Amino acid sequence: MRILVLFLLSFIVAAGISFNLNTLVHTPSGPIQGTSENVHGFPIQGILSIPYAEPPLGSQRFLKPKPVKPWTKTLKATKLPPACIQNMDLPEQSEDCLYLNIYAPIYAIKGSNLAVLFWIHGGAFVFGSSRDDIYNASALVLHGNVIVVTINYRLGVFGFLTSNTTDAPGNVGMYDMFTALQWVNRNIESFGGDKERITLIGESAGSMSISLFCVSPLTKGLFSKAIMESGSIVVLTTNQLQPNLDLSQQVAEVVGCASDDITIESDPESVVGCLRSNE
After folding, report:
1. Do 34 and 102 touch, CB atoms closer than 8 A?
2. Model-level pTM?
3. What does UniProt give as the signal peptide span (predicted)?
Protein backbone atom coordinates (compact mmCIF):
# COMPACT_ATOMS: atom_id res chain seq x y z
CA MET A 1 0.00 0.00 0.00
CA ARG A 2 2.88 2.35 0.84
CA ILE A 3 4.33 1.84 -2.66
CA LEU A 4 1.00 2.69 -4.31
CA VAL A 5 0.70 5.84 -2.18
CA LEU A 6 4.19 6.92 -3.23
CA PHE A 7 3.29 6.36 -6.88
CA LEU A 8 0.27 8.60 -6.42
CA LEU A 9 2.42 11.16 -4.63
CA SER A 10 4.53 11.29 -7.78
CA PHE A 11 1.61 12.96 -9.52
CA ILE A 12 1.36 15.55 -6.77
CA VAL A 13 5.04 16.48 -6.89
CA ALA A 14 5.25 16.47 -10.70
CA ALA A 15 4.81 20.24 -10.77
CA GLY A 16 7.95 20.56 -8.66
CA ILE A 17 10.15 18.65 -11.09
CA SER A 18 12.62 20.22 -13.51
CA PHE A 19 15.25 18.57 -15.72
CA ASN A 20 18.76 19.98 -15.90
CA LEU A 21 22.13 18.19 -15.54
CA ASN A 22 23.11 15.46 -17.99
CA THR A 23 24.14 11.97 -16.89
CA LEU A 24 26.05 9.47 -19.04
CA VAL A 25 25.73 5.72 -18.45
CA HIS A 26 27.67 3.05 -20.33
CA THR A 27 25.53 -0.07 -20.78
CA PRO A 28 25.86 -3.37 -22.68
CA SER A 29 23.38 -1.91 -25.19
CA GLY A 30 25.42 1.27 -25.66
CA PRO A 31 26.12 4.67 -24.07
CA ILE A 32 23.05 6.54 -22.81
CA GLN A 33 22.84 10.19 -21.83
CA GLY A 34 19.99 10.92 -19.45
CA THR A 35 19.22 13.88 -17.24
CA SER A 36 18.90 14.74 -13.60
CA GLU A 37 15.74 16.27 -12.24
CA ASN A 38 15.00 18.20 -9.09
CA VAL A 39 12.13 17.00 -6.93
CA HIS A 40 11.54 19.83 -4.47
CA GLY A 41 15.27 20.47 -4.30
CA PHE A 42 16.45 16.86 -4.32
CA PRO A 43 18.20 15.51 -7.46
CA ILE A 44 16.97 12.35 -9.18
CA GLN A 45 18.28 10.68 -12.35
CA GLY A 46 15.82 10.40 -15.21
CA ILE A 47 16.85 8.30 -18.21
CA LEU A 48 13.92 8.54 -20.60
CA SER A 49 12.89 6.92 -23.89
CA ILE A 50 15.36 4.04 -23.95
CA PRO A 51 14.46 1.69 -26.82
CA TYR A 52 14.18 -1.94 -25.77
CA ALA A 53 12.96 -3.29 -29.13
CA GLU A 54 13.15 -2.38 -32.79
CA PRO A 55 10.25 -0.15 -33.94
CA PRO A 56 7.27 -2.45 -34.74
CA LEU A 57 6.57 -0.75 -38.06
CA GLY A 58 5.74 -1.94 -41.57
CA SER A 59 6.40 -5.65 -41.91
CA GLN A 60 6.87 -5.91 -38.12
CA ARG A 61 3.35 -4.71 -37.32
CA PHE A 62 1.43 -7.39 -35.34
CA LEU A 63 4.60 -9.46 -34.85
CA LYS A 64 6.55 -10.24 -31.69
CA PRO A 65 9.12 -7.55 -30.88
CA LYS A 66 12.72 -7.85 -32.00
CA PRO A 67 15.20 -6.89 -29.24
CA VAL A 68 16.89 -3.61 -30.00
CA LYS A 69 20.32 -3.84 -31.61
CA PRO A 70 23.26 -2.38 -29.64
CA TRP A 71 24.38 1.12 -30.59
CA THR A 72 27.73 2.89 -30.49
CA LYS A 73 26.77 6.57 -30.58
CA THR A 74 25.52 8.13 -27.37
CA LEU A 75 21.75 7.85 -27.10
CA LYS A 76 20.12 11.04 -25.81
CA ALA A 77 17.44 9.86 -23.39
CA THR A 78 16.07 13.11 -22.03
CA LYS A 79 12.40 13.22 -23.09
CA LEU A 80 9.48 10.91 -22.41
CA PRO A 81 8.46 8.64 -25.31
CA PRO A 82 5.17 8.94 -27.19
CA ALA A 83 2.31 6.76 -26.04
CA CYS A 84 1.47 3.66 -28.06
CA ILE A 85 -1.48 4.12 -30.42
CA GLN A 86 -4.80 4.14 -28.55
CA ASN A 87 -8.30 5.56 -28.83
CA MET A 88 -7.59 8.46 -26.50
CA ASP A 89 -7.14 12.18 -27.09
CA LEU A 90 -3.41 12.27 -26.43
CA PRO A 91 -1.07 14.79 -28.10
CA GLU A 92 1.79 12.32 -28.64
CA GLN A 93 1.04 8.82 -29.96
CA SER A 94 3.04 6.61 -32.29
CA GLU A 95 3.45 3.01 -33.42
CA ASP A 96 7.13 3.60 -32.69
CA CYS A 97 6.55 3.44 -28.95
CA LEU A 98 8.55 0.54 -27.50
CA TYR A 99 10.59 2.48 -24.98
CA LEU A 100 11.23 2.38 -21.25
CA ASN A 101 12.21 4.98 -18.66
CA ILE A 102 14.52 4.59 -15.68
CA TYR A 103 14.29 6.73 -12.55
CA ALA A 104 17.18 6.34 -10.08
CA PRO A 105 18.74 8.10 -7.09
CA ILE A 106 21.37 10.60 -8.16
CA TYR A 107 24.07 8.58 -6.38
CA ALA A 108 23.19 5.28 -8.10
CA ILE A 109 26.13 3.86 -10.07
CA LYS A 110 27.25 0.41 -11.14
CA GLY A 111 27.79 -1.56 -7.95
CA SER A 112 25.13 0.25 -5.89
CA ASN A 113 22.96 -2.89 -6.10
CA LEU A 114 19.68 -1.10 -5.46
CA ALA A 115 16.35 -2.90 -5.59
CA VAL A 116 14.42 -2.41 -8.84
CA LEU A 117 10.70 -1.87 -9.37
CA PHE A 118 9.45 -2.72 -12.87
CA TRP A 119 6.12 -0.92 -13.37
CA ILE A 120 3.50 -2.18 -15.87
CA HIS A 121 0.65 0.28 -16.34
CA GLY A 122 -3.01 -0.66 -16.50
CA GLY A 123 -5.74 0.43 -18.88
CA ALA A 124 -7.60 -2.72 -19.97
CA PHE A 125 -4.86 -3.41 -22.55
CA VAL A 126 -6.26 -0.59 -24.71
CA PHE A 127 -5.01 2.66 -23.14
CA GLY A 128 -2.32 4.09 -20.87
CA SER A 129 1.39 4.83 -21.21
CA SER A 130 4.57 5.49 -19.29
CA ARG A 131 4.28 9.21 -20.09
CA ASP A 132 1.19 9.64 -17.90
CA ASP A 133 1.99 12.13 -15.14
CA ILE A 134 0.86 9.74 -12.43
CA TYR A 135 3.59 7.28 -13.44
CA ASN A 136 6.46 9.72 -12.95
CA ALA A 137 8.35 7.71 -10.34
CA SER A 138 10.57 10.49 -9.00
CA ALA A 139 8.87 10.68 -5.61
CA LEU A 140 9.03 6.92 -5.18
CA VAL A 141 12.76 6.95 -5.97
CA LEU A 142 13.30 9.84 -3.59
CA HIS A 143 11.53 8.20 -0.65
CA GLY A 144 12.08 4.53 -1.39
CA ASN A 145 15.80 4.34 -2.22
CA VAL A 146 15.02 2.19 -5.27
CA ILE A 147 15.33 2.28 -9.04
CA VAL A 148 12.03 2.37 -10.94
CA VAL A 149 11.49 1.29 -14.55
CA THR A 150 8.33 2.26 -16.44
CA ILE A 151 7.50 0.87 -19.88
CA ASN A 152 5.29 1.24 -22.93
CA TYR A 153 3.76 -1.78 -24.63
CA ARG A 154 1.49 -2.11 -27.67
CA LEU A 155 -2.22 -1.79 -26.99
CA GLY A 156 -5.52 -2.72 -28.58
CA VAL A 157 -5.38 -3.90 -32.19
CA PHE A 158 -1.63 -3.27 -32.47
CA GLY A 159 -0.87 -5.37 -29.40
CA PHE A 160 -3.49 -8.10 -29.48
CA LEU A 161 -4.92 -8.63 -32.99
CA THR A 162 -4.52 -12.26 -34.05
CA SER A 163 -4.97 -14.56 -37.01
CA ASN A 164 -3.91 -17.54 -34.88
CA THR A 165 -1.02 -18.03 -37.30
CA THR A 166 2.52 -16.70 -37.57
CA ASP A 167 1.15 -13.82 -39.68
CA ALA A 168 -0.33 -12.27 -36.52
CA PRO A 169 0.32 -14.58 -33.55
CA GLY A 170 -1.49 -12.37 -31.04
CA ASN A 171 -0.55 -11.14 -27.56
CA VAL A 172 2.46 -9.27 -28.92
CA GLY A 173 1.80 -6.60 -26.29
CA MET A 174 2.63 -9.22 -23.68
CA TYR A 175 5.83 -10.07 -25.53
CA ASP A 176 6.68 -6.35 -25.48
CA MET A 177 6.61 -6.45 -21.67
CA PHE A 178 8.72 -9.61 -21.70
CA THR A 179 11.29 -8.06 -24.05
CA ALA A 180 11.50 -4.94 -21.87
CA LEU A 181 12.09 -7.13 -18.82
CA GLN A 182 14.87 -8.95 -20.66
CA TRP A 183 16.50 -5.61 -21.52
CA VAL A 184 16.37 -4.53 -17.89
CA ASN A 185 18.00 -7.78 -16.77
CA ARG A 186 20.85 -7.25 -19.23
CA ASN A 187 21.42 -3.56 -18.49
CA ILE A 188 20.10 -2.50 -15.08
CA GLU A 189 23.39 -3.11 -13.26
CA SER A 190 24.91 -0.26 -15.28
CA PHE A 191 22.41 2.08 -13.61
CA GLY A 192 23.13 0.78 -10.11
CA GLY A 193 20.36 -1.80 -9.97
CA ASP A 194 20.46 -5.37 -8.71
CA LYS A 195 19.07 -7.76 -11.33
CA GLU A 196 18.57 -10.33 -8.57
CA ARG A 197 16.12 -7.96 -6.84
CA ILE A 198 13.68 -7.00 -9.57
CA THR A 199 10.08 -6.69 -8.40
CA LEU A 200 7.28 -6.55 -10.95
CA ILE A 201 4.52 -4.14 -9.96
CA GLY A 202 1.35 -3.26 -11.84
CA GLU A 203 -2.31 -2.42 -11.54
CA SER A 204 -5.36 -3.61 -13.49
CA ALA A 205 -4.11 -4.90 -16.87
CA GLY A 206 -0.56 -4.57 -15.57
CA SER A 207 -1.42 -6.74 -12.59
CA MET A 208 -3.10 -9.33 -14.84
CA SER A 209 0.03 -9.43 -16.98
CA ILE A 210 2.24 -9.96 -13.95
CA SER A 211 0.10 -12.88 -12.80
CA LEU A 212 0.73 -14.51 -16.18
CA PHE A 213 4.47 -13.87 -15.86
CA CYS A 214 4.41 -15.59 -12.46
CA VAL A 215 3.40 -18.87 -14.12
CA SER A 216 5.21 -18.50 -17.46
CA PRO A 217 8.43 -20.46 -18.07
CA LEU A 218 9.62 -17.61 -20.32
CA THR A 219 10.13 -15.22 -17.40
CA LYS A 220 11.75 -17.70 -15.03
CA GLY A 221 14.73 -16.03 -13.37
CA LEU A 222 13.94 -12.55 -14.72
CA PHE A 223 12.35 -11.24 -11.51
CA SER A 224 12.28 -12.17 -7.83
CA LYS A 225 9.03 -10.68 -6.48
CA ALA A 226 5.67 -9.43 -7.71
CA ILE A 227 3.14 -6.87 -6.50
CA MET A 228 -0.28 -7.18 -8.14
CA GLU A 229 -2.91 -4.49 -7.58
CA SER A 230 -6.49 -5.09 -8.77
CA GLY A 231 -6.15 -7.83 -11.35
CA SER A 232 -5.02 -11.44 -11.76
CA ILE A 233 -5.08 -14.33 -14.19
CA VAL A 234 -8.33 -15.65 -12.70
CA VAL A 235 -10.25 -12.59 -13.88
CA LEU A 236 -8.48 -12.24 -17.21
CA THR A 237 -11.22 -12.32 -19.85
CA THR A 238 -9.19 -11.24 -22.88
CA ASN A 239 -7.45 -14.58 -23.35
CA GLN A 240 -10.22 -16.34 -25.28
CA LEU A 241 -9.11 -17.12 -28.82
CA GLN A 242 -12.35 -17.16 -30.80
CA PRO A 243 -13.71 -13.81 -29.52
CA ASN A 244 -10.34 -12.26 -30.31
CA LEU A 245 -10.40 -13.75 -33.81
CA ASP A 246 -13.91 -12.36 -34.30
CA LEU A 247 -12.80 -8.89 -33.19
CA SER A 248 -9.77 -9.09 -35.47
CA GLN A 249 -12.07 -9.97 -38.37
CA GLN A 250 -14.28 -6.97 -37.58
CA VAL A 251 -11.28 -4.65 -37.61
CA ALA A 252 -10.13 -6.07 -40.95
CA GLU A 253 -13.59 -5.58 -42.45
CA VAL A 254 -13.82 -1.97 -41.25
CA VAL A 255 -10.62 -1.00 -43.08
CA GLY A 256 -11.50 -2.99 -46.19
CA CYS A 257 -9.06 -5.86 -45.73
CA ALA A 258 -11.61 -8.65 -45.19
CA SER A 259 -15.18 -9.64 -46.00
CA ASP A 260 -17.58 -12.52 -45.49
CA ASP A 261 -15.72 -14.41 -48.21
CA ILE A 262 -12.18 -13.40 -47.25
CA THR A 263 -11.57 -13.82 -43.54
CA ILE A 264 -8.59 -13.52 -41.26
CA GLU A 265 -8.95 -17.23 -40.48
CA SER A 266 -9.34 -18.53 -44.04
CA ASP A 267 -6.76 -16.24 -45.67
CA PRO A 268 -4.57 -14.83 -42.89
CA GLU A 269 -1.60 -13.97 -45.10
CA SER A 270 -3.51 -11.64 -47.42
CA VAL A 271 -5.72 -10.11 -44.72
CA VAL A 272 -2.84 -9.40 -42.33
CA GLY A 273 -0.70 -8.19 -45.24
CA CYS A 274 -3.43 -5.73 -46.12
CA LEU A 275 -3.66 -4.59 -42.49
CA ARG A 276 0.10 -4.02 -42.41
CA SER A 277 -0.04 -1.78 -45.47
CA ASN A 278 -3.01 0.18 -44.16
CA GLU A 279 -2.12 3.54 -42.67
Report:
1. yes
2. 0.90
3. 1-18
